[in-house]
Each structure stands twice: as C-alpha cells, then as structure tokens.
Design brief:
656 residues, alpha+beta, Heat Shock Protein 90, 9-stranded antiparallel sheet, 13 helices, 22 strands, 53% helix, rod-shaped
Length: 656
C-alpha cells in the first residue's frame, strides 16, 4: 500500500485558507452586528429605564401628595389641640358644668360618659364622639380643656374627612381617660368585647404607645405606626400620629387612621407599567403590593421575604418625603427584556435579514471565487497523485530489479566460489600430498641415519631435521583438512530446485552437525533445544538448506564451547526454531556464546573473515549462508551482544 503524504495537499491548503478568510469575514460581520445590537439594546434599556422611572416617580409623587396631606392634617390637628391645652383662659369649668351635665350621658354598666349625638356646645353642633372614663365627678377644668379642644377641631375634621375617603378616623386620645373621635363610631358593638371603656381604651392605645411615649419619642415627632388590623373593625390600617403634651407632660396622642386599601390604586400596574409595585414601611413591612391581599395581621409579609422572591427582577424605587416609606416597582427580567426587544423591533428584523444574507453571501463568494481555485487545485493534485503513483511504481520496479540483480549476483557468486573452491582444492591437493609424503620420507631417512654411527656433532642437526619434517607433515595434514572442508562447502550437486519438506531437511541437517561436533557437545555439555514445526513445504535445493543449517549450528557450537572454555558460562545453550507465519517461513538459531563485538558486526558476512581462534575456521560459513539466503530471495538478520548471545534469523517467502 502506498504511503500517504505527511504534508497537507495543495487543495487542502487553498480550501482551508479561503474558508478561514470567509469565516473570519463572517465572524467579524457577526461581531460587528452583535456590537450594534448590544449598543442599541443598551440605549433602549436606558430609554425604558427613564420611562419607568418617570412613571414610578409620577405615581410615587401622587402617593406622596396624598400621604403628605395626611401628615399635614395630623400636624394641624395636633397644633389645634395643643394650642387649646396651653391657653388656660379659654376654659371656665364653673360656667360649662351645667352644659356638660346636659350634653353627656353616663353609662353605668361600662362606667363612662358619652357625648350625646345631638349635643350643641358653644353654639357648635357635634359631629363626632367623645368618651370620658367615669361619671360626672370626673368633669373638671382639665377635662373641660379636652372637651373644648375636641369641639374646636370638629369643623376642621369634617372638612378634611369629606375630601379624603381613605381617612377613616381622626382623634384626640388621652391615655386611659378620654378620647374624642371623628366621625361617630358604633361604640356599643366595640364595647361588647370589653368589660369597660377603660379596658377598650388601653387595648386601642397599644398601637400608639409603642412610638409615642417619651422613652421612644423624646422629641415628640410625628410617626407612622406598623400596619395593623383595626380595633374598630375597619380592616388593615396604618396610623399617622403625634404625641400630645399638657404642661410639658405627656398625656396622649392626636392620630389619623388610614385604610391600607386606599394604597392599592398606587400599586396597580398596566401594559405601560408592567410588573409588581410595592410600598414598604420603615418597619420593613410590605404595606401593599400588586400581588398581595391582606386579610389579617398574620398575612403581612416582610420586605426580606418579598424581595427574596423578586431576586430575578429589575427594580425601580422612590423614597417618599411625607412618610418613611419606599415605593418600589419590580419587573421580571424576561418581561423587561421583551419590552426592550419590542422597542428594537425594526433593528432586530433588519439584523435577522442581514444574518440570513451571511450564508447567501458566503455561498456566492465560495462559488465565484473559491470553488474555481479549489477545482484547479484538485485537478493539479490529481495529476500530482498520478505522477506520485508512477514514481512509486517506478521505485518499486527499480527495487524489484535490484533485488533480482542481487539474487542473480549471489547465485553467480555462489557458483563461482564453488568452481573456485573446487579448482583450488584439486590444484592444491596433489602438491600437498607430495609435501606430506616427502616429509614422511625425510623423517624415515633421518631415523635411518640416526641409527648409524655418525659423528657427535651431526646428532643435534639430525634431531632438528626430524622436528622440521614432523612440523611440515603436521601442517600439510592441516592444510589438507582445510582443503577437504572447502571442497565439502563448495560441493554442488546438479539437483534442480524442487518442492521439499523443509522441516525434514532442517532436522536432518541438525543431525549432521551434531555428529560432526559430537565430541564438543559431550565435552562441554552443550544443550540443544529444537522447536521445528512439521510439514512446511518449500521450493529449494536440499543441499542449500543443509549448508545453511550445518554452518549456523557448527558456528553456534563453537561459540558456546569457546565461552565455556573461558569459564564465562555454566550451561551452554542453543535454541533452533522453524515456524511458518502467514506468508513467511522463519528459521532462527540463538546461542548464549561469545557474541559479536559491535565493531565486527559489518564484517562477519565477508568471505574468509572469522571470529574463531586461529586454525579453527575458514571464514566462509556465514558468507556462504548469506549468499544462499539471498539466492533464495530471503532475508538474513543478525542480532548479537558481546559476551551475551547471538541470534540469527532467516526469513523466507512461502513458495506453496
């Protein structure tokens, strides 16, 4: 399979470049459009905020005016009452007592005096109610002041109440003694729940005493109470009141009750002012809210509890000047956002159209500008691929030719070596035989002469001559053995290549090598392990396989024997394996012998190079093996580590 290029193709570069440019332009356009929309959204938000703030301020100011009227009314009522209490000349009990006896009625059961509804005092008609704890004996100058002050305020009370329906009651309250209330109240229904008037007065006064006493309000300022359920059954109320002093002594309050229901009109919202409006007191009470409806005091919600539910909302607030209250509007963020977007309608439609144009513009640019270049690059790339394919095929063919050339060269080299070896062996055999025979004859002559009586000075020469003849014979025999070995290695039969059982050939060759090296195997205790897979068929000349196996096994035996002799190993071991793996036949031999020095690894395949001790090898074994393997179109791999191991692996292609 042809390898793919590690580099990006020209068309991919062009495509990526232009797509990147298009995407960059689109992204910049999108960012610019987003910034415009964001900017416009901010402007519309500011406009909407301004609108809401104006509307909130308008409503809150109207509320402030109404509440301001109550505060002003409370202060004016307080001033009228206080002025009467300060002026002692205005009251003469001796002249008023007969009148008081006629206009007040004593109610013995509850022990109180009540002003008659049709009573006329100081030529002024009664419009309200007055209650005094006790009987006529309680009437004195002090009480006369209270009555005069209350009568004097009734016309003012009448006028204010007539124009302000949300104000239910206004009164002058002297703690546990006297109360003047406008307008009249159904006291009978109220007192049904109390044993006496003073009991009801104390109960009702609890609302004010918390804020009116000098301990709580030393300056005597106007105050607003907490929201409460009215003791006179008028529903949820809030009171504006101011402490009253007589001769610098705190005696009670002047107060005005306001129905909380009246605040509902200020928290009603509509399409132009959506959301929930709320009015919060200085006691963190939610007095009224768009989404609340109080029935009892227990229903009153605190600011924290209400705000917790409005965390995800936009808010606008206005602090009232006439009361310590805050008017606040909460608009849900989704509603607020929709209102902003609604105001941006035209721009959003325009932006949407532009967004739709982006892919259209991109497609046009792509088809007009990018696509032709991509097609050109694709055509160029196709030509390059075709050229690259031809080059790879050419390279493959050249490698195949080179491999066959090497195979032919190896075969010719092997044949030439065989002829050379055979020729040399035949040519040298006769001279060697003559040398060996002559050295024997010379040795016999020396022995014969030595037995005769010869001068003493020749005995030493005869001895030296005998040693020389023995040396000549010994080396002649050695040379003859080398020649015989070479002849056996170069011996080549005329058998042709045929399909053989490679497993049997390898096992037979192992036996031949063992027989040749039997003495060494026994002497050094060499252990040979065999793992030969059966029934492996291979087309070859049998003698080629024999040469490979015998040469490699003999070399391995010599290597482990040498290491054993050097006392560098205790258990000489040789492993032979033959296996068939897919399309390959693997023959492998490994020994734990001397190994090969790194600097000699490139020379071991050269002819006549040997790593064995002098006189123990011809240096032709591995060279011949390499040539045979090459001729068989195989591969020879040598792996070795000095003084550790040598492993030779031969890979052959299956031929069947």
């Amino acid at each position: 399979m042809a390898k793919s290029s590690p580099f990006p193709t020209a068309s991919s570069i062009v495509t990526k470049k232009h797509i990147f440019i298009i995407l960059l332009i689109n992204m910049l356009f999108f960012v610019a459009l987003s910034l415009v929309l964001y900017y416009q959204y901010s402007i519309e938000s500011q406009k909407l905020n301004t609108l809401y703030e104006k509307q909130v301020n308008s409503i809150a100011r109207a509320l402030d005016n109404n509440i301001g009227n109550v505060s002003t009314y409370t202060l004016e009522l307080h001033n009228l009452t206080s002025e009467y209490l300060k002026n002692n000349e205005l009251t003469d009990f001796s002249t008023d007592f007969p009148t008081f006896k006629n206009i007040f009625t004593y109610h013995q059961e509850k022990n109180f005096l009540r002003l008659n509804s049709d009573a006329v005092f100081a030529r002024t008609k009664n419009y309200g109610d007055m209650f005094i704890v006790g009987d006529l004996n309680e009437l004195d100058n002090r009480m006369a002041k209270y009555i005069h002050a209350s009568y004097n305020a009734q016309s003012f009370q009448y006028a204010f109440h007539s124009n302000n329906e949300y104000v239910t009651l206004s009164y002058f309250f002297v703690q546990s003694k006297f109360v003047s209330i406008y307008p009249k109240i159904p006291i009978e229904d109220i007192l049904d729940k109390h044993p006496s008037l003073v009991s009801w007065l104390d109960y009702a006064y609890e609302v004010y005493n918390e804020f009116a006493s000098p301990a709580k309000n030393l300056q005597g300022n106007l105050f607003w109470t907490k929201a409460y359920f009215d003791r006179a059954q008028n529903g949820m109320m809030v009171t504006s009141a101011k402490p009253v002093y007589d001769n610098e002594k705190y005696i009670g309050v002047v107060g005005v009750d306001v129905i909380l229901k009246f605040l509902d009109t200020f928290v009603e919202t509509n399409n132009t002012l959506p959301g929930n409006a709320v009015i919060i007191s200085n006691f963190d009470q939610v007095l009224v809210a768009t989404d609340l409806n109080y029935q009892t005091e227990a229903d009153i919600v605190t600011k924290d509890a209400y705000f917790k539910e409005k965390q995800d909302a936009v808010s606008f607030e206005y602090r009232l000047s006439s009361a310590p209250w805050v008017y606040k509007l909460f608009i849900d963020k989704s509603t607020y956002r929709n209102n902003v977007l609604e105001n941006m309608g035209t721009l959003i439609v325009f932006s949407f159209i532009l967004l739709l144009l982006i892919p259209v513009t991109t497609l046009i640019i792509y088809q007009v500008y990018v696509l032709p270049k991509i097609r050109y690059q694709h055509n160029l790339e196709a030509k390059n691929i075709e050229l690259d394919k031809l080059n790879r095929e050419k390279e493959k063919n050249l490698k195949e030719i080179k491999r066959y050339q090497e195979k032919i060269i190896a075969q010719k080299k092997l044949a030439a070596l065989g002829r050379l070896g055979s020729g040399m062996s035949h040519e040298l055999k006769n001279p060697l035989n003559i040398i060996n025979n002559s050295s024997k004859v010379l040795e016999d002559i020396v022995d014969s002469i030595s037995q005769k009586n010869i001068p003493e000075e020749f005995n030493q020469d005869m001895s030296s001559l005998k040693k020389l003849s023995e040396m000549i014979y010994k080396n002649g025999v050695r040379a003859n053995e080398i020649l015989m070995g070479m002849m056996s290695k170069f011996n080549k039969t005329t058998s042709e290549i045929s399909e053989n059982d490679l497993s049997n050939l390898v096992q037979k060759s192992i036996l031949f090598a063992k027989e040749a090296k039997n003495e060494k195997i026994k002497t050094f205790g060499i252990h040979i392990q065999e793992d030969i897979e059966k029934n492996i068929l291979f087309k070859c000349r049998p003698q080629d396989i024999e040469r490979i196996v015998i040469n490699l096994l003999e070399n391995a035996i010599d290597a482990v024997a040498q290491k054993y002799q050097n006392k560098q190993i205790e258990s000489p071991l040789i492993k032979l394996e033959l296996h068939q793996i897919k399309t390959k036949i693997i023959f492998q031999i490994r020994d734990n012998g001397m190994g090969i020095k790194p600097e000699l690894e490139e020379q071991v395949l050269e002819p006549f190079f040997t790593t064995k001790p002098t006189g123990e090898g011809t240096g032709l074994g591995l060279s011949i093996v390499y040539d045979i393997v090459t001729a068989l179109d195989g591969e020879l791999i040598i792996t070795s580590k000095e003084n550790d191991f040598t492993e030779i692996k031969i890979k052959l292609k299956k031929t069947s």
